[in-house]
Design a protein that fits this description.
Largest sheet: 7 strands, mixed
CATH topology of the largest domain: Aldehyde Dehydrogenase, Chain A, domain 1
Strand order of the largest sheet: 15-16-17-14-13-19-20
Number of domains: 2
Structural class: alpha/beta
Number of strands: 23
Distance between the termini: 66 Å
CATH class of the largest domain: Alpha Beta
Helix content: 40-55%
Radius of gyration: 23 Å
Strand content: 15-25%
CATH architecture of the largest domain: 3-Layer(aba) Sandwich
């Protein structure tokens, strides 16, 4: 079987490889992907550092053309790349193709942004002096991405990094190297100069740690667990390095008595269980006022009965498998914790068998949960949600905000008063009204508050805040 190698200084390299296993069918090896060493990582950093002077001064049309070519190829291959994504991560094929299309749109957007780079010319408070304010590339950027969005998250970090003239050392998650390799291959063939984009797949303890230890990385953009994010932050202080961290959430979906029940159920089910609940924006806390509580639980239970859990590529599958055995154990451990804490298991929670061996778990709904339970405080990152009964809107808002996280927050209501108040007072970076908490646009800022995020926002024009540094220049006329 062909080994998909790392890209370092424009050359494909690497003989040691690991298997990429399909979670829908653990007998299938998706491919063999290189596992980089500390030396590989140091070489990649050196290559990016050497390539930075020329690339940082490259023309905006060159950057535009390369990013546009990448976006066009991703779109043309959306079915192929979507199938690869579904095979390596377990996301259903429609979800996987949708994510691939989003990656293409991100490259298209930043291809346009490359032509919109601008600064300011302002008068000085002193006579005969002009002031220019410009944004310049930050330097060598370390990019570390998670397994749950294996093509979209790499896209929304790589595209702006290149758009603004940075060079890159990219480490994808070990579980899902396939889509990342494909993106790098596409960009490499689109005409990127050698060393501008370097791919080092492998273990976080080796590749990731070597990146953290390097004084030559000007910035690291990271999406992943809270624990690892804190390590990125601590290690970066020593090197005075700019950091951007996205670290998850425990997102609330509030359902008020006046909500349209069908809208509330659809939004909650999508938020909590689609993509197997493996989204940092998923709603795992369903906070429901007592007047609609029983009807909501009954309707949610009926909805869950209609959701088919099966192979990600199979037509009619609503929910694919959990990504791997380790995550499956985490999910089932939390289900047992919920039972011991006194929550009522209203639906699901069982491992299920399908035609192929895989990590299949029923969507799981708890009721009679409290906001103090571990299942309500800690991110599970699986198809597990808890219903918390509250008295009224005021209590619902207080419970929604009572969390160490603050990424996304949702409300189902027909009251303009409550919707407006919630948008203003929800302690989250993103707020959804009568919509799933998971599902955001590519051209607007993404990010959260409190323990969910640190640093400037991702996506859209706000990406410039991280990937550039501001220079102010004075000239005597």
């Amino acid at each position: 079987m062909t080994i998909y190698q790392n890209l370092i200084a424009g050359e494909w390299t690497g003989a040691e490889a690991v298997e990429n296993i399909n979670p829908s069918d653990t007998k299938e090896v998706v491919g063999l992907y290189a596992s980089g060493s500390a030396a590989d990582t140091r070489n990649a950093i050196a290559a990016a550092k050497a390539a930075f002077p020329a690339w940082s001064r490259s023309g905006i049309w060159e950057r535009h053309v390369i990013l546009k070519k990448a976006g066009d190829e991703i779109m043309a291959r959306k079915d192929e790349l979507g199938a690869l994504l579904a095979r390596e991560e377990g996301k259903t094929l429609p979800e996987a193709i949708g994510e691939t299309i989003r990656a293409s749109q991100i490259f298209e957007f930043f291809a346009g942004e490359a032509l919109r780079l601008a600064g300011e010319v302002v008068p000085s408070v002193r006579p005969n002096i002009g002031v220019e304010i410009t944004r310049e590339p930050l330097g060598v950027i370390g990019i570390i991405t998670p397994w749950n969005f294996p093509i979209a998250i790499p896209a929304w970090k790589i595209a702006p990094a290149l758009c603004y003239g940075n060079t890159i050392v990219f480490k994808p998650a070990e579980l899902v190297p396939g889509c990342s390799w494909a993106i790098v291959d596409i960009l490499n063939r689109a005409g990127l100069p050698k060393g501008v984009l370097n791919l080092v797949m492998g273990k976080g303890s080796i590749v990731g740690q070597t990146m953290l230890d390097s004084p030559d990385l000007a910035g690291i953009t990271f999406t992943g667990s809270v624990g690892t994010g804190k390590r990125v932050a601590v290690s970066s202080i020593e090197h005075n390095r700019k950091i951007q961290l996205e670290m998850g959430g425990k997102n609330p979906m509030v359902v008020l008595d006046d909500a349209d029940l069908s809208v509330a159920v659809e939004a909650a089910a999508n938020s909590a269980f689609f993509s197997t609940g493996q989204r940092c924006t998923a709603s795992s806390r369903l906070i429901v006022t007592e007047g609609i509580h029983d009807r909501f639980v009954a309707a949610m239970t009926e909805k869950l009965k209609t959701l088919n859990v099966d192979h990600a590529l199979k037509t009619g599958t609503h929910i694919g498998p959990v990504v791997d055995e380790r995550q499956l154990k985490t999910d089932t451990d939390y289900i047992e914790i919920g039972k011991k804490e006194g929550a009522k298991l209203a639906f699901g929670g069982e491992l299920i068998s399908r035609d192929t061996p895989g990590f299949y778990l029923q969507p799981t709904l708890f009721t009679e949960a409290t906001n103090q339970m571990r299942i309500s405080r800690e991110e599970i990152f699986g198809p597990v949600a808890s219903v918390i009964r509250v008295k009224d809107y005021e209590e619902a808002l207080a419970v929604a905000n009572d969390t160490p996280f603050g990424l996304s927050s949702g409300i189902a209501t027909t009251s303009l008063k409550h919707a407006t108040h919630f948008k203003r007072n929800a302690e989250a970076g993103m707020v959804m009204v009568n919509l799933p908490t998971a599902g955001v646009d590519f051209h607007v800022p993404f990010g959260g508050r409190k323990g969910s995020s640190y640093g400037s926002r991702e996506q859209g024009k706000y990406a410039a805040e991280f990937f550039t540094t501001v220079k102010t220049a004075y000239t005597l006329a």
